[in-house]
């Protein structure tokens, strides 16, 4: 989407080829201005004051909650909890719902392609509760092994934790199939939406999941703001994660009653500018349309897997069919360490990621310790991909 590159100051200032949006996205001027104007024109906190600027701040904050609810197809804004990021959202579920609803002998299913954020909290919960963590494997072409999943599923499973889109393989997972199967055994499903919400239309009701977590900074918003969506009846049955100011109804020396949803889960002064910036990011994405975002990225990834895959010595990971793949291309180049490749590309002003991308179990399964990863967003173009390919070829010459 060449015409919107002008909205991204970092892309105007230099000739950067930014291919690390799976880590964090760039921010358009509209988002930057919304945050700046909160500080220059409003400045007050939310929910507490009865003076004008606090009322305005509260309205902006709560309007964003409505916007987020619409953006992901939630039934009610009460189901939208603002947290710091996907990691915090998942930990919130592990320490509240998980703590209360799992016990010795229960099982939790996760998958080998999870980000550590959707793996380690479940490993730790299983350890605390003496529950079993079961891990779904992969097929040869980088999809979840659904036969393996079906075999692991039983009435002992309390929770299934799965990513919507893999941040390494790009695989788009069959969430509705998973939620339908989960219902048959009474298990809940948590979807890690970190790589999903920024890149495609999400409807949590259609997905049929129970928890959905994502981060604002990967979808044009500021850092430090994320969202947990959960069904209202589940949130009502969960204990607060953090306690203190803002999340109470009444406090006496002997006891505390909690605020209604969603504030029960938002202790302390929240990330007000982050929420306002997230609202501006959603406005921006809605103007483009999430279907268009997805179809643009699908074309880009199709082009990218083609031309990168043609470079001699390159191994591209993940599904071949680009209709089942998000805007992420992880690859290795024969005899070149991904870190060396990333350094040489950086000299050409091309930013990619090298390492395990917080997916060590997956890399172990793939038989590599690290990969190079190019990830796309709406501001990337075929020219960026071409420059990456040139850069890879140059690195091969230098390191020959
Ligand atoms: C699939 C996936 N899950 C979770 C996360 C964690 O996101 P955050 O660091 O914003 O909590 C990431 C970040 O890269 C991710 O790609």
Automatic annotation (TrEMBL):
It is an enzyme of class 2 (transferase). The keyword Transferase applies. Its cofactor is pyridoxal 5'-phosphate. Belongs to the class-V pyridoxal-phosphate-dependent aminotransferase family. Csd subfamily. It catalyses: (sulfur carrier)-H + L-cysteine = (sulfur carrier)-SH + L-alanine. It comes from Candidatus Blackburnbacteria bacterium RIFCSPLOWO2_01_FULL_40_20. Keywords: Pyridoxal phosphate, Transferase. SUPFAM superfamilies: PLP-dependent transferases. This is Cysteine desulfurase. One of its GO terms (biological process) is cysteine metabolic process. One of its GO terms (molecular function) is cysteine desulfurase activity. Pfam families: Aminotran_5 (PF00266). Catalyzes the removal of elemental sulfur and selenium atoms from L-cysteine, L-cystine, L-selenocysteine, and L-selenocystine to produce L-alanine. InterPro entries: Aminotrans_V_dom (IPR000192), Aminotrans_V_PyrdxlP_BS (IPR020578), Cys_dSase_SufS (IPR010970), Cysteine_dSase (IPR016454), PyrdxlP-dep_Trfase (IPR015424), PyrdxlP-dep_Trfase_major (IPR015421), PyrdxlP-dep_Trfase_small (IPR015422). Residues 17-388 form the Aminotransferase class V domain. Its EC number is 2.8.1.7. NCBIfam families: sufS. PROSITE patterns: AA_TRANSFER_CLASS_5.
């Amino acid at each position: 989407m060449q015409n919107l590159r002008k909205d991204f100051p970092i892309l105007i200032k230099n000739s950067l080829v930014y291919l690390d949006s799976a880590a964090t996205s760039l921010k358009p001027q509209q988002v930057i201005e919304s945050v700046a104007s909160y500080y220059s024109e409003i400045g007050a906190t939310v929910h507490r004051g009865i003076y004008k600027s606090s009322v305005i701040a509260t309205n902006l904050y709560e309007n964003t909650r409505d916007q987020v609810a619409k953006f992901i197809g939630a039934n009610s804004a009460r189901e939208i909890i603002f947290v710091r990021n996907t990691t915090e959202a998942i930990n919130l579920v592990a320490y509240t719902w998980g703590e209360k609803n799992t016990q010795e002998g229960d099982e939790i299913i996760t998958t080998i392609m999870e980000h550590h954020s959707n793996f380690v909290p479940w490993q730790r919960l299983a350890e605390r509760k003496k529950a079993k963590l079961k891990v779904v494997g992969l097929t040869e072409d980088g999809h979840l092994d659904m036969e393996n999943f079906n075999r692991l599923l039983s009435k002992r499973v309390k929770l299934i934790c799965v990513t919507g889109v893999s941040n390494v393989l790009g695989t788009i997972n069959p969430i509705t199939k998973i939620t339908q199967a989960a219902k048959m055994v009474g298990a809940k499903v948590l979807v890690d939406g970190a790589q999903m919400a920024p890149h495609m239309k999400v409807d949590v009701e259609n997905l049929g999941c129970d928890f959905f977590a994502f981060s604002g900074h990967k979808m044009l918003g500021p850092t430090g703001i994320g969202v947990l969506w959960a069904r209202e009846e589940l949130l009502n049955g969960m204990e607060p994660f953090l306690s203190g100011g803002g999340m109470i109804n009444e406090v006496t020396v002997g006891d505390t009653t909690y605020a209604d949803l969603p504030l029960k889960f938002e202790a302390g002064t929240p990330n007000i500018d982050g929420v306002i910036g997230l609202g501006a990011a959603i406005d921006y994405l809605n103007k483009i349309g999430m279907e268009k975002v997805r179809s643009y990225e699908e074309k880009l990834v199709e082009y990218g897997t083609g031309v990168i895959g043609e470079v001699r010595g390159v191994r591209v990971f993940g599904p071949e069919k680009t209709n089942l793949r998000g805007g992420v291309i992880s690859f290795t180049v024969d005899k070149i360490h991904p870190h060396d490749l990333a350094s040489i590309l950086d000299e050409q002003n091309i930013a990619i990621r090298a390492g395990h991308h917080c997916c060590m179990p997956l890399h172990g399964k793939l038989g590599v310790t690290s990969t190079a990863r190019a990830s796309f967003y709406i501001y990337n173009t075929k020219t960026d991909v071409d420059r990456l390919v040139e850069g890879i070829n140059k690195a091969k010459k230098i390191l020959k």
